[in-house]
Amino acid sequence: MTERTDHSTGAPGTAGPGAAEPGTGAVADQPTASHATPPAPVPYQVLPAPYAGSVGGPVGWPYAPRTNTLAIVSLVTGFCCSIAAVITGHIALGQIRRTGEAGRGLAITGLVLGYVSLGFAALMLVILLFFTAAFGAILTGVANSTSSLGSVEPPVVEAASGQTGAAYLDDGYLQVGIGAAVVDLYIDPMCPYCGQFDIANGDTLAAMVDDGTITLRLHPLTFLDQASQGSEYSTRASAALTCQAAINPESTLDYLAALFLNQPAEGTTGLSDDELVALSSGSAPIADCVASERYQGWSQQNTDAALTGPIPGADISSIQGTPTVLVNGSQYSGPINDPQALADFIHGATV
Predict the structure, then answer these.
(1) What tens-digit pLDDT sequence spans the chain (351 residues)?
(2) What is the three-state SS of the chain?
(3) Which of 15, 130, 262, 265 could cross-link to 19 by cystine, CB 3.0-4.6 Å?
């Protein structure tokens, strides 16, 4: 214990300031106000974490990170400049990862708009190239077709006079027989009525040729070219018949019968040149003659002459349709499928 000058120990229970002096009853002097003990300081309190301040901001206010500028640029250019949107969008995402700035959603939206626009532009470019190539191919085909049509040489017109086999080229007909009655038969190889006429009357006429009753003159026409889808079947078949008459005159009527037995329907392309050649039963081939188109022009010229007239020695001025039969210049007007009626008309014309 510390001994005090008043001989007290200062132990607990001893008199303190203001207490009476022991044994005297006197009160000790009170300390003055200026010597009062100051209050203990309040400990420093740390604010809770959610309200703590951050660098550059006042304590107690939350901090909102700024939006990345390139992210905004990417979003805006996504509507008008896809390449710029893609470039700035990728740069913005990289900056956002490093700095923690806001705007990731804006940058991604700009990227999506940019890539969608680029994809659409690429698709339109592919479509444009496709249609450009297709249109170019069409123009090339048309040009080639025009060039081909312009470069095709016209059919060879047999510039011959007199007779080649059974073909009387100057007179415009194919002749078989030397009978007194002259029968002129105008036919078109694609004409269905001509086919019916030949099937019904072909054998009768052939018999009259063989027995010397008639001279049969065939006039193969070509006016039904328009009914063969551009293949000019009537011209090709008429020329093939003329080839047969010129090269194999003895088989002229056989070839005519084969043409009508294998007659194509109107509105089709008809038989090919190879098929026309295959109909020949003559001893000499007609393939080269058919391939050269030797008598196509001749057949067309005869058609023009028959349709415009005049018809020499006939009681009609021009041919109006097929089949047309003239016997010594008089036109047969009976049924085309009645061989007896035709035979009677021929015999009557010879009397």
Answers:
(1) 444 444 444 444 444 444 444 444 444 444 444 455 566 555 545 444 444 444 444 444 556 789 999 989 988 998 888 899 899 989 989 999 998 899 899 989 989 998 998 899 899 999 999 988 888 888 776 666 544 444 444 444 445 467 899 999 999 999 999 999 999 999 999 999 999 999 999 999 999 999 999 999 999 999 999 999 999 999 999 999 999 999 999 999 999 999 999 999 999 999 999 999 999 999 999 999 999 999 999 999 999 999 999 999 999 999 999 999 999 999 999 999 999 999 999 998 776
(2) CCCCCCCCCCCCCCCCCCCECCCCCCECCCCCHHHCCCCCCCCCCCCCHHHCCCCCCCCCCCCCCCECHHHHHHHHHCCCCHHHHHHHHHHHHHHHHHHCCECHHHHHHHHHHHHHHHHHHHHHHHHHHHHHHHHHHHHHHHHHHHHHHHHCCCCCCCCCCCEECCEECCCCEEEECCCCEEEEEEECCCCHHHHHHHHHHHHHHHHHHHCCCEEEEEEECCHHHHHCCCCCHHHHHHHHHHHHHHHCHHHHHHHHHHHHHCCCCCCCCCCCHHHHHHCCCCCCCCHHHHHCCCCHHHHHHHHHHHHHCCCCCCCCCCCCCCCEEEECCEECCCCCCCHHHHHHHHHHHHC
(3) 15
Which superfamily does CATH assign the domain made up of 163-350 to?
A: Glutaredoxin (3.40.30.10)
Please state whether the peptide bond connecting residue 62 to the residue before it is cis, i.e. omega within 30 degrees of 0.
Answer: no
Distance CA(233)–CA(231), nearest Å, equals: 5
∠ CA 272-276-277, nearest 5°, is 115
Q: Take residue 200 and report the two structure tokens written for it.
A: 């019904």
Q: Are 121 and 82 a contacting pair, CB within 8 Å?
A: yes
